[in-house]
Amino acid sequence: MTKPLLSAIALASMLGSTATSQALAINQQPARTVAGMSSDDWNVETITEDLDYPWDIEADGDTVFVTEAAGNIAVVQNGQLRKFSLQTSTKIIRDGGGGLLGMALAKDFGTSRAAYFYHTYRADSGLRNRVIEAVFDGNSWRETRTLLQGIPGHRLYNGGRLAIGPDGHLFVTTGWTEDGSLPQDRDSLAGKVLRMTLSGEVPSDNPFKGSYVYSLGHRNPQGLAWNQDGEMYAAEHGQSARDEINLIKPGANFGWPLIDGDRQRDGMETAYLHSGSDTWAPSGITFRGRELLVATLVGRGIYVLDTRGNELKPIYTSGDRYRDVLSIGNDIYAITTNRSPRGEGPSDDRLIRLSPKL
Question: Which phi and psi angles does 296 have, rounded to 5°?
């Protein structure tokens, strides 16, 4: 069942937004902060309930795009939901937490209709992941170029987030694939944040010459966002606990599996913030003005980074597992993935809009 999209998405259209969720959040200033808000402070609207393991949400003008792990892209426009399968040169494999994951719309999407996707596929050596470019003609999505393939894959630990940074390059998070040697190996693409041009080349100013690797020592990062000062943050799943929010620096080593949380080691970065013995299972993140919003799976809500107390605080919880979050104007959009990668839980996933109560 779908319900009409209301004023927040229309506001994005008025502002002529044709960028990724991170850029949308930077370019639009909300009327109020949310650090002191709770679940009772929001009006909640379900925009659509007809989603199957959604993973990424992006918006262009009055249109919202959501990836589904099985290989579909849900498009919500003028209150109507349509789904399109992504036509790829290599079959998308839906296996556990793998499948069609991250998406980033080109900054000129309104004219180019181009976007970038991260998906799992099967090779002779097992599961792998690819980064591709595809174009939407209004009736179908079709792969137009392979940017990178052969990224190590896994049923649970694939990373999978894509985002176009302020520098115009494409950033990609990858998982450790449960192999402790790979995140520390600069020759491996696993357990990393990667940086590439929009044509799939290694930028000449990457920290390691000839390498896509931008930062290393990651376990399973699933969120990327930039603040108004151009600083990049990532959200990362820990091992049962010690989930992390990290401030990403080029060439930095974030330590996994040698350190995590507040543990220290020479030449490695200690987490900017971590969950200690608790578990958030953070996934998508976005900036709302200067506030960092975090979608949490085990935390079952939307959280905000409270810089005064240096903690994550829930601003909305509902019992659902939240995979991604997008801030547009004064409203917040979020998607749930209530079924876990291990197949546990219901499949009643939805796209919601949170509007502050007056």
Answer: -120, 145
- Using alpha carbons, select from 156, 82, 158, 164 the residue that is nearest to residue 119: 158
Phi/psi of residue 224, nearest 5 degrees: -140, 135
What are the C-alpha distances in Å from 211 to residues 52, 69, 185, 204? 35, 28, 12, 9
* In the block, residue with structure tokens 């990532």: 234
Q: State the Cα–Cα distance between residues 303 and 354, nearest whole angstrom.
A: 13
Q: 């993935």: which residue's tokens? A: 337
Give the per-residue pLDDT at 28: 60
Stated as kind and residue range, the H or E segment containing 288 is: strand 282-288
Looking at the whole model, is its pTM more than 0.85? yes
Q: Report whether 221 contacts 283 (CB < 8 A).
A: no
**Burial degree of 358 (CB within 10 A; 0-12, 13-18, 19+):** exposed
pLDDT of amino acid 343: 80
pLDDT (0 to 100) of residue 296: 98
In the chain, which residues have pLDDT < 50? 1-27
CA separation for the pair 251, 51 (Å, rounded): 38
Question: Strand pairing partners for 26?
Answer: none
Contact 244, 271 (CB under 8 A): yes
CB 79 within 8 A of CB 4: yes
For the sheet with 322-328, list strands across it: 42-51, 349-356, 331-336, 322-328
